Amino acid sequence: MLAWSQDELADRVGVLRRVISDFEKGKSLPHQETMDSMYRVFVEAGVSFTRSSGMLGVNITETANFTNWLHSISPRK
């Protein structure tokens, strides 16, 4: 959705990549503070979380898509 690597997400959240990897694999659940930080990072990037008829969903704004695209084509430092 945002095309971030585990390393990028970990940097933004302030945790080790292993924390993200283990969470994605279902090996462990991060501490609540880490989950809150992940939520803030995603919301700041333009992601919104929804609930409708008992179903959870995720939306991403056009601004977030454009910003992510710009980031993907910019030279890496």
UniProtKB/TrEMBL annotation:
Q: Which Gene3D superfamilies match?
A: lambda repressor-like DNA-binding domains
Q: Name one Pfam family in it.
A: HTH_3
Domain of life assignment = Bacteria
- Domain HTH cro/C1-type, by residue range, is 4-48
Gene Ontology molecular-function annotations: DNA binding
Q: Which InterPro entries match?
A: Cro/C1-type_HTH, Lambda_DNA-bd_dom_sf
**Protein's UniProt name:** Transcriptional regulator
